[in-house]
Amino acid sequence: MKTPKRVLVIEDSTMLIRPVCRMVEELGFEAVPVMSLAELEQQLASEVHFSAAVADYCLPDAPSGEALPPLFRAGIPTIVLTAHNDQQTRDDILSMPVVDYIPKDSPSALDYLMRMLKRIDRNPQIKVLVVDDSHTTRSLLRDYLRRHLYQVLEAVDAEAALQILREHSDVSLVLADYGMPGMDGAQMTSAIRRLYTHTRLAIVGISVQQDKTMTPRFLKAGADDYLQKPFTFEEFTCRITRNIEFVENLMTLEHLAHADPLTGLSNRRHLFEQVQKIRGAYGIAIIDIDHFKQINDGFGHDVGDVVIQHLADRLREHFPRAIVARFGGEEFVVLMKRDAAHPLAQRLEELRQEVEREEVDSHKGTVRYTISIGMAAATAPDIRELLRLADERLYKAKQNGRNRVCAS
């Protein structure tokens, strides 16, 4: 059973705690309301795991932030809400290992709170590479990033950084110091950009030098942003969050351009783009759901969509390293390089048998369906000619009674 993601909502105002709890639950968390330090201590003593906390700085029995240290000792990422926006309170809060603090009087306070909770949920899967020859600076940046739960990798120079990127192709952000031995930060940025586009990786330049040309040097080299030392935790947090979200948004747009919206598989356009990268012998198959119109007419188009999604899931399972695309309607295409150990024809027959055995549950009852498959194979042929041949064999499979694989 999946463990629920719980968020402590610590607030003594009933006017605020209800909308915060509601918004927390809309994000998919379980909200646990707490209205005093005494209640908080009871929750922490329960040994229940909490993914995060939203904590009012001033409670009736904790008027000066006394509720925060127990949260830090428990290792709970904490976002502080405060009605006190004076400089001293701000400094006191930011001297503690908080994720962030939010003034309650800000018109966008709740929106920003939800944004930070989303980041707490996503950031443990995001890698950030810190490149700086100063141990002190790396330690500071590591602390700031770990408050937000990022995975942190470190390098002392450009050569080490490039090696880490070769080993960790899923790094989303690089923090690049300018003044390093050997290749400087701007030169390293240029080298990274030869490997990764802005869609895949953000780069933020950092320097202590009071040089007006430093920002354009980094930006022209391919950086996305620039930070001048010394910078505050708040400025650092805002810049890093913005750049991470920028990469995420670009990747989402790229995915939407290449993906079928119903199944998440590649679309027709992406299939033709990907096939250009394949070299050597490969096979292609066209898979069609038998009597799909009868499913739509008998159960409704919404159930038809469920059946399409079911087949898409089975295709992912059977062809994890192949190119799988929804070609349109109830038709799918699988394109796979030659695999002598587990040939395409064998995999297709295994898929056909599994689909025939399974039942698909829907709100209108159980649905069973079968598939017909046409397959062709060659060495670096014209993809359109190979598709034509596979389509002819699909037609032959249907003419011969459906629910079969035709490879010749």
Automatic annotation (TrEMBL):
One Pfam family, short name: Response_reg
PANTHER family, sorted: DIGUANYLATE CYCLASE DGCM-RELATED, REGULATORY COMPONENTS OF SENSORY TRANSDUCTION SYSTEM
Keywords for this protein: Phosphoprotein
Chain positions with 4-aspartylphosphate modification: D56, D177
Protein name: diguanylate cyclase
Organismal lineage: Bacteria, Pseudomonadati, Pseudomonadota, Betaproteobacteria, Neisseriales
Domain (Response regulatory) ranges: 6-119, 127-244
SMART domains in UniProt: GGDEF, REC
GO molecular function, one term: diguanylate cyclase activity
Catalytic activity: 2 GTP = 3',3'-c-di-GMP + 2 diphosphate
Keyword Lipid biosynthesis part of the UniProt annotation: no
InterPro entries: CheY-like_superfamily, Diguanylate_Cyclase, GGDEF_dom, Nucleotide_cyclase, Rev_trsase/Diguanyl_cyclase, Sig_transdc_resp-reg_receiver
Enzyme Commission number: 2.7.7.65
Gene3D superfamilies: 3.30.70.270, 3.40.50.2300
Domain GGDEF residue range list: 280-408
GO terms under biological process: cell adhesion involved in single-species biofilm formation; negative regulation of bacterial-type flagellum-dependent cell motility; phosphorelay signal transduction system
GO CC term, one of those recorded: plasma membrane
Species in which this protein is naturally found: Pseudogulbenkiania ferrooxidans 2002
